[in-house]
Amino acid sequence: MGVAIVVTSGKGGVGKTTTTANIGTALAMLGNKVVVVDADTGLRNLDLHLGLENRIVYNLVDVVEGTCRLKQALIKDKRFDNLFLLPTAQTKDKTAVTPEQMQKLIDDLKKEFDYIIIDCPAGIEHGFENAVAGADRAIVVTTPEVSAVRDADRIIGKLEAKGLEDHQLIINRIKYEMTKKGEMLNIDDMTDILAIKLLGIIPEDEKIVISTNRGEPAVTDENSKAGKAYRNVARRIMGEEVPFLDLEEEPSGLLASIKKIFFKK
Amino acid sequence: MDLFKFFSKETPSKDVAKERLKLILIHDRANVSPQFLEMVKGDIIRVISDYAEIDESGLEIKLTRAGEQGTSSPALVANIPIKKMKEFGR
Questions:
Q1: pLDDT, tens digit (0-9, with 9 covering 90-100), for B19-42
Q2: Which of A71, A185, B52, B78 is the most exposed place for a label (fewest CB within 10 A)?
């Protein structure tokens, strides 16, 4: 029996889909049989992050409505044989699926896969209800901004009200230089405010833009800092104790490179 | 500009953010409506008025957090300006 993990945040644009694609891919790289599920019906994007947008024939709504079998809607990844995508419909809206149907679907997937990673839409309405319906665990993604932290807190409250107590936090897009100056909420500030277990810290990384452009998750890029952080998250999900990346040791940018040459520590 | 900042010892913006967030979350978590606070306010005025003449327009009641630092349990704080104590109240 596999584990279903929903990736959620409340606020949009904090990196739920990026996180889903990267964690899913990293778990597959570690040898697990993984399916990533797009629960953002009407605004699907997970296919783009994986570069699989041209291979979609059937989708999640087709499965629920009985138009096709579950296996027909699953798309095998380009790079990893043990990674699959279950896309959703782009031309339907969130009411096309009910939480009960979603639960059944996830239960079916759990028989086939080790990990089911569900990409939740922004908001706390029907789409959220569907995405969390079959989940055993939740990953709450936030960024170091007041609005994202507030929404994360609201989502944590919603998850707890549903009895989904196994939830952990990913802090995305941390800019070390700004936290050092006291101009950005740091990790301690955020875990202090949200009182939730920390699963990962993802540094701001321009490589994420590049990898999304190409449809290749950053975890496949050895040189991506964010990719490395996501690979660590995947290992933690599997129960391994992995220390958090020391953001300080890796200054980036031209100035930092020049500084490194002249002021060797 | 940076030099000015250095001397003025302006609070780092992340501390401002953290303080604002703590207060916002107390409200969000308690799920207290403005109507609720108005009701409490009305009742407080009624009770206190038996003992003192109060300045109703200056009465302020707000939800904040108990203790100085760290604790996040919510607290109702009322500021009730008194014009004059009533004879009965002394």
A1: 999 989 988 888 878 888 888 888
A2: A71
Does the interface predicted TM-score (ipTM) exceed 0.85? no
A164 contacts A135 by C-beta, under 8 angstroms: yes
Q: Which domain holds residue A127?
A: 3-262
Q: How far is the CA of A150 from the CAs of A140, A144, A215, B62, in angstroms?
A: 12, 10, 31, 20
Please give the DSSP secondary-structure letter assigned to residue A261.
H
Going along chain A, which residue ranges are E strands? 3-8, 34-38, 75-76, 83-86, 115-119, 137-142, 167-174, 197-203
Residues of A in contact with B25 (CB under 8 A): 150, 153, 193
Domain boundaries, position B87: 34-90
Query: For A5-62, how does the pLDDT look when each residue is reduced to its tens digit (9 = 90+)?
Result: 999 999 999 999 999 999 999 999 999 999 999 999 999 999 999 999 999 999 999 9
| Domain at A117, CATH number | 3.40.50.300
Report how many Cβ contacts below 8 Å link chain A to chain B: 39
Diameter of chain A measured on Cα atoms: 65
